[in-house]
Amino acid sequence: MKLFLLLCFVVLISGSRNGNAPNIVFIMADDYGWANIGYHQNGSNPEVVTPNLDALAKSGIELDRHYTYKICSPSRSMFFSGRLSQHVNTVNVEPIVRNPNDPISGYAGIPVNMTGIATKMRQGGYRTHMVGKWDAGMATPFHTPVGRGFESWLGYYHHSNDYYTEHTELYATGTIDLCLDKPVDLWDTNKPAYGLNGTAYEEVLFTKRALEIIENHDVNSPLFYVHSFHLLHVPLQVPKEWTDKFSFIDDKERQLYAAMVAYMDNEVGTIVQALQKKGIWDNTLLVFASDNGGPIYKPANASGANNWPLKGGKYSDWEGGVRGNAFVVGGYVPEKMRGKKLTEYVHMSDWYTTFSKLAGVDPFDEVAEKAGLAPVDGLDVWPLLNGSVPHSPHQELHLSNLTLIQGNWKLVTGVQPMTGWQGPQYPNKTGDRPWFPNVKFLNHWEYDCGSGCLYDVFADPTEHNNLADQYPDRVKSMKSRLDELNQKDFHPDRGSEDIQACIQAKRNGNYYGPFVF
Fold first, then answer.
1. Rg of the chain (C-alpha set)
2. 8-to-1, 3, 141, 224, 411 alpha-carbon distances in Å
3. What value, to the nearest 5°, has the Cα angle with vertex 140 and ends 139 and 144?
4. Of the candidates 349, 232, 358, the residue with the CA atom closest to the CA atom of residue 296
C-alpha cells in the first residue's frame, strides 16, 4: 500500500502542462450493435433513435473500420494499456481471481506492471477522471482506476451489475461467484460508494458525476475524462418511460435494447452540452467507440442487439463481433476533416499512443519493460485523423489468435461461434438465435474454418464469400504470419476465485473492492 501511495504521489507531482494539449473525452459504449445506431440505418428505422450520436458523427469523423476485441474485459484492458488483447488479457474472468504464485500477472485484467493511459496523461499535465464500468482488474489497489492514474472514479469492477441495486446477480453477470454474488459492486475513487447503491438508475448516478467533473474542472489544465457506459450490456434494464417510447416493438428484448440505446444517446448529448456550457468544447477531442460488437445470443434477456448486415456478433471474430461503431468529434478536429467517413483501419489499442502523443508524453512503458511484459502495441493515428497522411499506419491487424487482417484480406481460422447473419429486425419472433457460448451442448451457430476462411472485407464486408480455395497461397502466407504473431501471445495463470475477496467485501460493509494489500 505504501508503494501504491508513493506512485500516486509521483504521478501527481511529475505532470507538466502541455500548453497545446486538447481536452480529451473518451466515451465507451458496451455491447453496441452495428445496426443499432442511426447513421448505419440512414435514419430510416423508427426503432433506432440516436439523434445526438448521428449529429456528432456527421459533424466529426466517422471511423468506419474501428476494430476491437470480441469481448468486454480484453477490449477494455486493451484500451487502458495500449496493448493488443493477446498481449495483456484475452479472458473474461471474475475480478476476484488470484494466483498467489504470480504477483504481477496472477490476477484478472491488466498486469500490475503495465502503465495505464491515465498515468501517461497525468504525466502530461492532465486532470484525469473516470465514470462507469472498469472490468480491467480489482485485486490490488494497483488494479483499480485510481491505481492506473485516475484521480477519481465512480463505477463498478465486474462485467456487469444490476442497474438499480448494483448487486452482481446471475442475470447480470451470467455467473455465480465464490461470494455468491452477495456484495454490492459500486466504488467511489478509493472507497465503497456508501449510500449510493439502490438510490437511482445507475446511469443517472454516472451522468450526475460526469456533470460535476466537467463543471468543477479547472480550465487551466487539460481534462482527460473517460465515460464508460454500463449501457448497453445486460441486464436489459431501463426506466419505464423509455420503454414506453418503443411500445410499438413486438419483441421484448428488442424493445428494451432500443430504449437503452435511446437513453444512452440522450446521455451523450447531455455530456456534450456540459462541455459546451463549460466553454471547452472548441479545444476538445471526443472519441466515441463500442468495446465490441453487439451480442446476438439467447437465453431471454441476454441481448437485444443487431449487427446487420455484418456477420456474427460478440464472442466471434466475424465483423459483427470486432468492428465497432466509432467516431471522433469536437472543436479540436480540423475543419477539413469534419463530415468525413474514414475507411482506414483504426484499432482500440491505438488510443493509448495517440492520446499520449497529444499530451506530449512518450507512450513507451519503461515499467513494463523492466518486468518483462509486452510493449505498447498501439500506433499514433492522429496524423490520419488530422489529415496529415492519407492512410492508416496499420499494414495488418492481429485481431486474435485466430484472426489476421492484411490489407483488404481477412483470415479467420478455427471454430467461430455466432456464425450467421441477422436481419433488419432482430431479434424477432420468427428466426432462430444462437445460445450464449458458455452454455454447453447447445447451438452456438458454430462454424469451423480450420486452417482458414479468407475474405476480402472491403469488397465483401458481410463475409459471405470465402475465397480460401481461390487463393490458397495467400491463406498459407497469412496463416504462417498468424502463427508467428501468436508466439508472443500472453496467457498467464490468473488463478482461481479467492475467498479473501469475499472476506474483504464483508469488511467493506458488503462491497466488492481490492482484497490483496
1. 21
2. 11, 9, 11, 17, 43
3. 90
4. 232
C-beta separation of 293 from 285 below 8 A: no
> What grid cell was written down for 213?
467533473
d(CA 52, CA 243): 19
Grid coordinates given for 419: 456464425
- The per-residue pLDDT for range 259-268, each reduced to its tens digit, is 999 999 999 9
Give bridge partners of residue 477 from the DSSP assignment. Answer: none
Alpha-carbon distance of 455 to 447, in angstroms, equals 15
The pLDDT of residue 2 is 38
Q: How far is residue 486 from each of residues 425, 479, 482, 489, 491, measured CA to CA in Å?
A: 38, 10, 6, 5, 11
Strand pairing of 127-133 and 223-228?
A: parallel
pLDDT at 164: 98
Residue with cell 467533473: 213
Q: Are strands 61-67 and 326-329 parallel, antiparallel or unpaired?
A: antiparallel
pLDDT of residue 18: 59
Residue 281 Cα distances to 22, 276, 512, angstroms: 9, 5, 36
Q: Read off the pLDDT of residues 237-253 as tens digits, 9 standing for 90 and up.
A: 999 999 999 999 999 99
Q: What is the mean pLDDT of the chain?
A: 95
pTM score of the predicted model: 0.96
Q: For residue 351, how far is the Cα from the chain centroid?
A: 12
3-state secondary structure 302-359: CCCCCCCCCECCCCCCCHHHHEECEEEECCCCCHHHCCEEEEEEEECCHHHHHHHHHC
Q: Report yes or no: 370 and 29 within 8 Å, Cβ to Cβ.
A: no
Alpha-carbon gap, residue 462 to 470, rounded angstroms:
18
